Amino acid sequence: MKNTREFLSRIGLPEGDLTNMQTSEKRFSDGAQYRFEVPGIQGPASMEALMEEVINLNLTIHRVTQTKGIMLLTDNEIQEMVNLAKIGKVELVLSIGPRATYDTSASVLTPEGQRMGLRLRGQEQIVRAIEDVKRANTLGCNSFLLYDEGLLWILNEMRIMGELPRNIKFKISAHTGNGNPCSAKVLQNLGADSINPVRDLQLPMLAAIRQAINIPIDLHTENPASSGGFIRHYEVPEMIKYCAPVFLKTGGSVAKTHGWNTTAAEAKQRAKQVSLVKRVIDQYYPEAIGSKKGSIE
Length: 297
Fold this sequence. Notes:
Layout: H1 2-10, E1 34-38, H2 44-56, E2 63-66, H3 75-88, E3 91-95, H4 123-138, E4 143-146, H5 149-160, E5 169-172, H6 181-190, E6 194-195, H7 203-212, E7 217-220, H8 236-243, E8 246-249, H9 264-284
Parallel strand pairs: 1-2, 1-8, 2-3, 3-4, 4-5, 5-6, 7-8
C-alpha cells in the first residue's frame, strides 16, 4: 500500500484516516472554529419558538435548517422564516423539495433502493429542483440544502454564469452518502459551500476529510432515531479541535425521523440540546472560538 499512500500524499490528500490527528488551523472568515446549526425546523411557528428559547437560554445559534422541502411551504411561510432569520441574525437554509422519497418511484423504499439516498431521478426532477431554488431565492432565501451531486453541479454553473446570485450558498446533506476525503474534495470542486458527511464517521475519518478540504464541515452532534439515534456530545470538543471550521448540527435527537414536523415545544427542546453541547465545550475545550451572533457571510 506504500505506493498508493505516497500518491495520495503527492496530490494533497491524506494517506489514510488520521490516527495522529493534528489541531486544525482552518477557520471561518471571522476567525471562529465552530458555529451551531439547528436542523429540522420545518416552518415559521417552530422557528419562532426556537428563536425565543435561544434568547431565554442566552445562547447563540448561527444556522437554522428546514428539511421537508421548499415546495411544502407557502410563499408567506417562506417570507416569515426569512424575516425571523433576519431578526435573529441567523442563516436560514431551506431544503430542495423534489427528492427520491417524494417521487413516483418506489425504488427508494426497497432495501436496494435505499442506497440512492434522496438523489433525484430523471431530468424533470432536476428542472423542478432548480425551480424550488429560484422561488425561495426570489422570496429572500440565499442558502439551500441539496441531496444530489448533479444538482449541485448545475446550480453552481448557474451561479457562475449569473443565472443565480453570486452570494447564494449550497449545503450538501448527509443523505448524499459521502464519507471520505476524496468524495468531499469532489463536492468542494463542484461548488459546495459546506458538506455534511455521513453521520457515523469516527474522529480520525473526519480529520482526514478536514485535511482534504477548506470549506466548513457540518457534523451531527446527535441524530434522530431513524438515523441511529446516537448522541456524540462528549466528542464535540475534539470535533472542533481537529475538524474546524465546523457547523455543529444539534437537536436532532428530539426528532424520530429526518423530516420530523417539529412542534413549538420540540423546537424549544432542540434549543436545550444546544445548551447541553455548549456546556461540554465550555468545560472541556473552553478556549474554542465560536462565532458571535450575526456572524454569517
